[in-house]
Automatic annotation (TrEMBL):
Substrate binds at D291, C325, S326, A327, G328, I329, G330, R331, Q369. Residues 1-49 are annotated as: Disordered. It holds the Pfam family Y_phosphatase. GO terms for molecular function: protein kinase binding; protein tyrosine phosphatase activity. Residues 299-375 form the Tyrosine specific protein phosphatases domain. It comes from Phyllostomus discolor (pale spear-nosed bat). Residues 151-384 form the Tyrosine-protein phosphatase domain. This is protein-tyrosine-phosphatase. It is an enzyme of class 3 (hydrolase).
Amino acid sequence: MPLSCPQRLHTVRCRSRARQTSRLSEPPPGPAAPSMVQACGGRSGAQPTAWSLGAAMTQPPPAKAPAKKHVRLQERRGSSVALVLDVRSLGAVEPICSVSTPREVTLHFLRTAGRPLTRWALQHQPPSPQQLEEEFLIPPNFVNPEDLDIPGHASKDRYKTILPNPQSRVRLGRAQSREDGDYINANYIRGYDGQEKVYIATQGPMPNTVSDFWEMVWQEGASLIVMLTQLRESKEKCVHYWPTEEDTYGPFRIRVQEERELPEYSVRRLSIQHQEQCRSVRHILFSAWPDHQTPESAGPLLRLVAEVEDSLETAAGAGPVVVHCSAGIGRTGCFIATRIGCQQLRARGEVDILGIVCQLRLDRGGMIQTAEQYQFLHHTLALYAAQLPGEPGP
């Protein structure tokens, strides 16, 4: 329908004012401004109203579009929320993984390692010397001197690097009145099947520790001492801590009651008196074993083990067997491991030599000092397995 003259005039004025407003407030390049038809309030040809004209003339220019924000990596993939954690709100959170210390790794290995060998495998398929040398790379579990917080202990240690492991060390009581504490370089050692305090492994007594040694024997009710060193081997390895006939060591009176010499070792029966009490102790000296080495053959060591077991059957007390060489770890460890291995072979028909050595080193660091001693231990137990009755199966 054609517009009347007043309507056309009104429309022209509206367009003129809109162009003037547009030139005065032209926005920077951006979204297109609304069309005149839209500004005037409707479809093309629609009758404008006063409200639509006023709105068109006073409408502010479109706002400038904000600059695009750089999006961080955490905010991508359709999320507008930053992946930021407030650690204060987490509380106590368990770590996903933990890093073990060298000490923890050592203890875990010593507690879990093992390689059982049947009688047949020990005799007919023994590990090669190279395999045993590699297997002998067992953590020694030596004590850090800084971890042994005992004033004055160094004067009672034969070797400054061979120290008793704190958790199993023997502590002396009060049989003697002294000011130097309860220290002696000795450890309780577990025996077959993990039985507690079957042995005490200790160093060869020194001039200033002889009375401490006898106090330990008395305190623990020991009825047997096994000595695996000579008094001198190029230098002093142990002092002569027992009498030729009779002598006093601190508050203890020691007498030799009986003595017999055998080709490989000597046996003495001693009496030890303290105040009004008197006890009997057997002392076995096995001297055919050089330091850091092995005996010439396994037979004498097996006969020593048999002598010890016979002595224990007739012993009056049930205390630990006191075993020492010079440092109390090499030959001492070999003897204890041999006896435990013999017990395993008799009871189970197999032996876990690696597991035995690991158990010993948990109780006293460095037990069995050399790969040669470790190989000799296998050889000795193979010989013992061959002597057992019955034919072992593969």
